[in-house]
Amino acid sequence: MAPTMTAPSLAALLGDEWRRPGRTAQALADALRGMVVDGRLPARTRIPSERSLSDALGLSRGSVSRAFDRLRDDGYLVSARGAGSWLTLPPGAGPAAPPRLAEDGEVDLTIGALPAPDPLLADAAARATAALARHLPGLGYAPAGLGELRMAVAARLTARGLPTTADEVLITAGAQHALRLVLDLVVGPGDRVLVDAPAYPRTLMAIRAARARPVPVALAGRGWDPDGWAAAARVAAPRLAVTVPDFHHPTGRVMRAAEREAVALTCARAGAVLVVDETCAELRLDGPALPPPLGAFDPGGTVITVGSMSKAAWAGLRIGWIRATARAVRELATIRTAVDMAGPVLEQLVAVELLDSWDAVLASRRALLRLRRDALLAALAEHAPSWSVDRPHGGISAWARLPTPDATHLATAAAAAGILLSPGPAFSVDGTFERHVRLPFTLPPDTLRDAVGRLAKLARELGTETRAAPTPVARDAALSAV
Amino acid sequence: MAPTMTAPSLAALLGDEWRRPGRTAQALADALRGMVVDGRLPARTRIPSERSLSDALGLSRGSVSRAFDRLRDDGYLVSARGAGSWLTLPPGAGPAAPPRLAEDGEVDLTIGALPAPDPLLADAAARATAALARHLPGLGYAPAGLGELRMAVAARLTARGLPTTADEVLITAGAQHALRLVLDLVVGPGDRVLVDAPAYPRTLMAIRAARARPVPVALAGRGWDPDGWAAAARVAAPRLAVTVPDFHHPTGRVMRAAEREAVALTCARAGAVLVVDETCAELRLDGPALPPPLGAFDPGGTVITVGSMSKAAWAGLRIGWIRATARAVRELATIRTAVDMAGPVLEQLVAVELLDSWDAVLASRRALLRLRRDALLAALAEHAPSWSVDRPHGGISAWARLPTPDATHLATAAAAAGILLSPGPAFSVDGTFERHVRLPFTLPPDTLRDAVGRLAKLARELGTETRAAPTPVARDAALSAV
Lengths: 482, 482
Hints:
The structure is a homodimer. The first copy, chain A, is of the alpha/beta class.
């Protein structure tokens, strides 16, 4: 099950910055632990033998052996006769629980949601209420969604470069609900599901709720890692994979066209359905144009695209969709009847009306998000200069890297101070990403500035500012977009 | 796992009508097969030894032995050394698949849904659209539901005899969705869930989708069987139970007050959560007043009540609720965020407005349902006099008993002729109830009359009319209500 890393690959990933003359073993142990804790190496990565690693690093075998012993003592390395050794996280370093719900007066940075686009939404609701009359004599029951909304979504997907017919669209109560239905259709207990590392926490929760097992594939360099996907698909034999290629949540990255093609092909060859979450695909704020939708690289009906109006319009709508083959849509509609029967009629009519003025809706969202993103980045530069963050060119959140792996401590202290925050481990299968926090830029600029100031102060009090210098990372996520 | 039936009980259940002089063995085999096929005995019922049954029935042991041999040859009886014998259904007689979705021009008797109460729903939508303005500056995100709707539902439950506060209410997308959330909270793979036999098909689908195992408890006499519940709870050690005490779906029965008390206590003692589905509780058409809500008999926080506006108002709304302890509601709200995040705001406001004119809504629904029920019963009396049906005093459907166990054949023939019909086995865990079909009385009177006429003709062509005389059954479900 575990991915294996060769000695030269691991040596290349380690680089040379970790070396500390005179205390090589401890430094190597620290470097390896850091990589698994902050997610650069997925937990359960199999590592090379002491001998091959000592060769690749140019170290004595004794130093490597002592480093491994320290990792073993601390619970970060497990060895089994005949199966080699693999990095892991000790008990208690597991994945974070779902965040508690915010109480009045707290600042909730665990939710990325905007107020409704007014007056566009109120206008759409008024028009929908008028259109409702036509539907009242009916039974109000359409498990695949209202015909007019299926057509409108299909037209929008087609306009975005993904030719789609209405019978290839199922209307859902948002992207989360869409993923849940696909999981019900495709996976059973114990099935493996490839996910990005980091991944959206509720994606991981939904996979686990389906009793399936998320298998992380690390993002690499500035984009995705086709070789990593191929290796994971080979080893894990997944039934399903989930990725967020357009303004990836939480990193903001964009998947290159060549990566899209490779990931789609890898999944198809492995017999895995690839779910493409396009929740933020229409929220480009600046930077280069997006590549074609990942679904356009589908080699043969194995890509399912899910989308939502929750970020692009308003979370209070609860409208999303699944784009799949007409046959899969029929099967999903049947499954849906055992989950929640069908979607509400009036809400779907509001969505039809909103799609009618979609360009204006998007323009309003983008203008708001641009302001708020810039406020967040300015606040980080001012209050938390040692935190490092890729400038997101779209979507709703930034992925900030702390100078030390203390995200969970910071989130705990912040919650006590009335700021709910998603620490990196919430985005990981295995408790990694302790160096990261996700910062949505959906709250008003003043709230964001105030929250960042308070978070930075808390971080200083925890000492995360002083224990290590930041590692340089790329400052522009858009470079990963082609 | 299997319930055991003593020889005297089985003899009492068999009565004497099955006896055929000169062919005793075949007649006994037919009688036992009939009881498992049409659901009077749950499949996997353990039966007494040949000797004790021959004593109880006053038959030669050889006759009983030959009857058992015939059942064994046909796949209806399984014996294992040391474990005795139990009745079962042969392969292929398994539970029905979910019904396909109706196509244009077909009559869909698999759905029990009414048109919207007009102008009440249109008026509520207009008022809700006006109220929406107040919510647009917010994030539209309330996993437990809008405060004002939680309060309105709590007030309605309190008025119905189930004192409830707003923090004990979670708003859902209907009763199906509510059950799904409770399943996510309470059960894991392999857990047993007690269900009525017969039960609502989508309840069984949801339990199976949660990888749990429905365990049927047969309705008995004219109501529920507290002893059967106690025995099943003892043997199955269930984590959850689901019942529909008010105008039970599909039979229309009402659970007596004493049965409510006993079932609630049995579940509490077994450590099982009891889900009470009140979908039709407000749709009393005539007959005696209902006993207090089952939740009023909760001995200590182990009863969860779910309800819905789908039958009482309109299925196009997708509004339901869960009433549970405030603590369970918080846990369910967290689970919900991984299923579909939250409910739509506008739809919840429509529900608030509808509850404001709830008495008028119910009056409109009841008037419509009374007319349609009477049309259905009249059509059955005219076209299918050999079918037997308890007159439902509420709810949306009747449970008709055919003279022969051919419900699946009839449903198949009907589907080919453009009438979708739910055969009895769709309501069973194990393919029983082949003598029954569910007939909702939600379609217009003319449609119902036409459909019943065509179904009766199909049944005659299949020969179900001629092969056996109907067994007399009680004609008044209200007698079971106290």
